[in-house]
Amino acid sequence: MPRFALLVFFCTLGLIVMAASIDEVPAIAGFSKNSARIQREWEQKFRAIPSTENMREYMKRLSARPHHVGSPYDKENADWILSRFKEWGLDAHIETFEVLFPAPQERGVELLEPTKFVAKLQEPRLPEDPTSGQYSEQLPTYNAYSIDGDVTAPLVYVNYGVPEDYEQLERLGVSAKGAIAIARYGKSWRGIKPKVAAEHGAVGCLIYSDPRDDGYFEGDVFPSGAWRPKDGVQRGSVMDMPTYPGDPLTPGVGATPGARRLDLKNVQTLTKIPVLPLSYGDAQPLLQALSGPVAPESWRGALPITYHLGPGPGKVHLKLKSNWDRKAIYDIIAKIPGSAYPNEWVIRGNHHDAWVNGAQDPISGLVALLEEARALGEISKAGWKPKRTIIYCAWDGEEPGLLGSTEWAEEHADELRQHGVAYINSDSNSRGYLSATGSHTLEKMINEVARDIQDPEKQISVWKRSQLLQIARAKEPEEREELRERADLRIGALGSGSDYTAFLDHLGIASLNLGYGGEAGGGIYHSIYDDFYWYSHFDDPDMLYGRALAQTAGTAVLRLADAELLPYDFAGLRDALRKYMSELEKLAHDQREEIRERNKEAEEGVFTATSDPKKTFVPPAPQDVPPYLNFAPLRNALDALERSVERFHKALATTQKDGGEVLARASLETVNQKLLLSERTLTRPEGLPGRPWFKHQVYAPGFYTGYGVKTIPAVREAIEQKQWKEADAAIVRVGKVLQDEAAVIDSAGAELERAIH
């Protein structure tokens, strides 16, 4: 071959290879092919920037001293975070709110009978742990928003203190009425335990960490290992957050200095009885003083005692008195303005306050957020500009009750409803597997992101690692088959427990909660030992998964900010709603069968033994078998949703023709505005029955779970509580919401069809 022809051949071959490499750029939902290529270049630059050493230094600084609400170091940290945002080129400021934040002045737990014992209610300093002895700055061990009280009463062990535990006690002939209930942490959010105890007549509540759940049963205890030591105590809020989170005095409005506030006596979210937390060192003598029936096997913890239920002979004196002051909280808000759609906002948040030093909760999540913000500042200097406005938020007051995020969201509610594209949250972070939960409209997007993030230890994608874990844990062959065959991993629904709550449940802004975990031991949650020493020895000492979180959440922010078409996908929502519908029908069926079975047992004289052999059995009164619920409004709505989703996805598939360049040519602003409405449409202005603050009709925390989600909550909880008329009415209401959602999706599909033709 002549030299010139050879040169032409290789040049042509090079062009073909280059063209092929361009064609092989993986697609990204919402991006044309050329935009996807540019996007991936910026993402690669972004993901190379977060530094583990920076995160380690941030954590040292931010967790150096206790920084709870109202503490001097809380304000120092806020000012330091603000200065970093500004240093990195973000437009940043602090927004201040005034919130109710009680702290105890007097605490006491004393066993009076049959022996004497005074609980220490104090976590000891450990010589290995340099910050554990900062006593003058630490909050004492307590549960925030417990009412004051001074009660003396017999003790009753109530297992985890959830409603079904009291049903079991009743069957065993044990009553908590007039008693102090002692419950172990776990199975539900802590605020549910005094709530349910009060409903059953208890006059006080103690919550302790059993070593079976959180101590030596799980592994070596701190400082030898990661788990909770004998005198470690879990602080935490017992605010009735399923009623409403945020400042108890200003429900629904921002707690600004001039806001109208409730009188303390009118606040709904305080406990009805006094409550204090205990270590298992303090709990053991109290539990050992109980007699009565031996606890059921599943109720027994890992203390070296026989677990009895009581009541008696143990009698306990519980005393609590707090101040009820208002404190300032400091939200740090930083913006990167959008270049094309500045009125569409992508919001990213993590809180900065802690119960004590808080290295894991929340600083492990916050340091990832800070490195994301720094990395975005760096690529901005290199020429990148987001299409949409990005808002980075470091919230204050999350620990007492989601105070900072809720007050900010309430204060800016109208703007957020108009402009909010999505909210991405993180909280604690640890070594292990990616956890992604949230709005199912974002399921496909976060699956795509997870495929592009490499696990720092296993050298496979974090998506593949999560898939392999779920396959290994699957209990049924059908579940394993779906995990292997379904294009995307299902994400879990959100209840409450972190700062996404106001955005999703109150405002209807599509939300995600992201974090890594599952491989590090736990056991210092909300204690003085959650500090840099513990984290750097037992959790993610090299900050590898902190960097992975920054890469994951930051990539999600970039895609939401830069997509030509907002990457909402309704197939995940449709599939989730189908699943929830099946669960509701099964729940209603199971409730009917349970009542039939109990009525049959009553007729046949089959009863559970009581604790007192002298008692005469009294057959329970038969219950009316509930009517069959009419699920037709929900079924019809799901059919309409199915049709609208099919139309939208058909139009979406058309956008991929011609290499997806139709997206670059189309006018998509109107489509995106309709997509913004899709999550808002799943809310109702009047909210849930008895809980008007919670407006989302698909996701909400359970009234008796606190953190745990109840999907289609108005229907589900009515069935669970055997409120059949309310269940029928809720089916109609939610059916209308889903019909409206179908109409919005259909309209977005029609608008997309017009935009691409």
Task: Write a compact overview of the structure shown.
The chain has 757 residues and is of the alpha/beta class. The protein has 3 domains: 297 residues, Aminopeptidase (3-Layer(aba) Sandwich); 220 residues, Glucose Oxidase, domain 1; 180 residues, Up-down Bundle (Transcription Elongation Factor S-II, Chain A).
Topology:
Layout: H1 3-23, H2 33-47, H3 52-62, H4 72-87, E1 91-100, E2 103-113, E3 117-118, E4 143-144, E5 149-157, H5 163-171, E6 180-184, H6 192-199, E7 204-208, H7 211-214, E8 236-237, E9 275-278, H8 280-288, E10 315-323, E11 326-336, E12 341-351, H9 359-381, E13 388-395, H10 398-401, H11 403-411, H12 413-419, E14 420-425, E15 432-438, H13 443-451, H14 462-473, H15 477-485, H16 501-506, E16 511-518, H17 532-538, H18 544-562, H19 570-604, H20 632-654, H21 661-665, H22 669-680, E17 699-701, E18 709-711, H23 713-720, H24 724-756
Parallel strand pairs: 4-8, 5-6, 6-7, 7-9, 12-13, 12-14, 14-16
Antiparallel strand pairs: 1-11, 2-3, 2-10, 5-10, 11-13, 15-16, 17-18
Cα-based radius of gyration, to the nearest Å: 28 Å
Structural class: alpha/beta
**Residue-averaged pLDDT:** 93
Q: End-to-end distance, in Å?
A: 49 Å
CATH topology of the largest domain: Aminopeptidase
* Helical residues, percent: 40-55%
Q: What is the approximate shape?
A: globular
Largest sheet composition: 7 strands, mixed
Main-sheet strand order equals 1-11-13-12-14-16-15
Query: How many domains make up the 3D coordinates?
Result: 3
